[in-house]
Every structure is written in structure tokens, then in C-alpha cells.
Design the sequence.
């Protein structure tokens, strides 16, 4: 279970414009202890909790982060139910589950992404499915308007570009697609260039192969269709064999 003491101690201290040294001096402990707690490298002794709570004028529950812990547990249960519903193709239940959850956790990026995905999986007439797609686009617009997590934004920008294309709004689909970084300026490429840890660099390189293969296949298939040249499709199989033939690469 993740505890929130470290982040809370840091937040309480900064809200009062105090340095670690000032807090340490008042409590009669070393500033290294304060630093360690705020970095989550360790926790205060249980006898220090009421002292710290009194110093910052909060309850011990607030210091520990009981509300955050309860919220995290509740979200975990909601996400488990979403997974179960998805596996059973019960997407209408998931739409309602996410809408209800967002009343408690508004603007939660994961819940919004899951709502968008569930809306796009709903069945119905062509006009109904187009309305579900419009609602999904609206949810994705909401995510982009506030979320500053680069990975979430990148994923949503990609999805919304495709959603607008399927909705029939080519101009908006193109506008969103052009906001995405090019293939070279990706997280995986940056990491393998700068990582010093060889084991992690190796893991990143291997993890990049599957999306790289998907990208290559997509573009080679496009070239095959636009140039009416089936040779490109043969290259897809050849590249896949080179990348994923474990016997050859062993």
C-alpha cells in the first residue's frame, strides 16, 4: 500500500513557506530526517506522527493521507469492474460505470479514457454509433483541454485524430494528427540515446520493437495500396521474421 506521508509533509511545509531546516529546528530533529521523509525514503516513527500533525495543524489521518488511500482503493475497484465488463463485452454497463465514477473523480484522465473507449464500443444503428463516436470525441476533447501528462496526451491525440476521421471531419482529423510528434522524436528513441543503464536500455529497445513493427506494417501496407505494388507486403513478413525470429537472434 502506498502511503502519502512524504508528499503531504512536503506540501504542508511549502504551504507555510518553511524550509526543511526550519521545521527540523522546531521539532528538534535533523533536516536530513525531514528530507528523507519527504523523498519517501523512510517514514517518521509512530511517536512523531502526533507531533508533526500538531505542528502543521492537521489530523493524523490528513498527515497519512487516508482520503487519498481510500480514493486509490475505490478507483482500483472501479477499474477492476471496468476490466470485467469489457471482457464480457458489457460496454453499456461500462459507460454508466465511468459516468458515475466521474461524478466522484471529475477530470480523472484514466476514467475519461475508459469512458471514451467504452462509448466507441457500443453497438446500435449507424446513426446511434455515430452519436456514440461524437460523445467519445467530446470526452477526448475534455482530456486534452486539461491533462498535461505527455503520454496520455499523445495517446489521446492519436485516438481523437482517428475518431474525427471516422466521424467524417477530415479537417479536424488532420489538424490533430499534425499535433503529434514525428516517429523519430519518440520516448523510446530518446531513452535509448541517453540511458546509461545498459539493462534498462536493452529493455526499452526490445519493448520498442512491437510498436515499431506495427508502424512499419502500416506504412508498407499503405505504399502497397497507393502504388499497387504487392512487394511491399512481402517486406512486412520479411521484417517481422528478422525482428521476432528468436532462433535467428539467439
Sequence:
Amino acid at each position: 500500500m502506498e502511503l502519502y506521508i512524504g508528499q503531504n509533509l512536503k506540501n504542508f511545509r511549502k504551504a507555510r513557506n518553511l524550509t526543511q531546516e526550519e521545521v527540523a529546528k522546531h521539532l528538534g530533529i535533523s533536516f536530513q530526517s525531514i528530507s528523507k521523509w519527504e523523498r519517501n525514503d523512510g517514514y517518521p516513527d509512530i511517536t512523531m506522527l502526533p507531533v508533526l500533525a500538531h505542528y502543521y495543524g492537521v489530523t493524523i489521518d490528513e498527515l497519512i493521507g487516508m482520503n487519498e488511500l481510500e480514493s486509490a482503493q475505490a478507483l482500483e475497484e472501479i477499474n477492476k469492474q471496468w476490466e470485467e465488463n469489457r471482457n464480457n463485452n458489457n460496454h453499456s454497463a461500462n459507460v454508466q460505470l465511468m459516468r458515475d465514477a466521474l461524478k466522484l473523480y471529475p477530470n480523472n484522465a484514466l476514467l475519461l479514457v475508459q469512458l471514451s473507449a467504452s462509448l466507441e464500443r457500443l453497438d446500435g444503428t449507424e446513426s446511434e454509433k455515430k452519436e456514440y463516436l461524437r460523445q467519445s470525441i467530446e470526452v477526448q476533447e475534455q482530456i486534452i483541454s486539461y491533462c498535461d501528462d505527455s503520454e496520455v496526451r499523445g495517446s489521446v491525440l492519436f485516438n481523437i485524430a482517428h475518431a474525427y476521421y471516422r466521424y467524417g471531419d477530415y479537417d479536424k482529423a488532420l489538424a490533430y494528427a499534425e499535433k503529434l510528434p514525428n516517429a523519430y522524436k519518440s520516448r523510446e528513441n530518446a531513452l535509448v540515446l541517453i540511458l546509461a543503464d545498459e539493462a534498462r536500455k536493452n529493455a526499452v529497445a526490445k519493448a520498442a520493437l512491437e510498436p515499431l513493427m506495427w508502424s512499419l506494417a502500416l506504412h508498407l501496407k499503405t505504399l502497397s495500396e497507393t502504388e499497387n505494388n504487392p512487394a511491399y507486403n512481402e517486406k512486412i513478413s520479411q521484417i517481422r521474421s528478422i525482428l521476432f525470429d528468436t532462433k535467428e537472434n539467439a
In short: The chain has three domains: 5-64, 90-180, 188-249. The domain at 5-64 is CATH 1.10.260.40 (434 Repressor (Amino-terminal Domain)). The longest helix spans residues 66-87. The chain is about 75% helix and 0% strand.
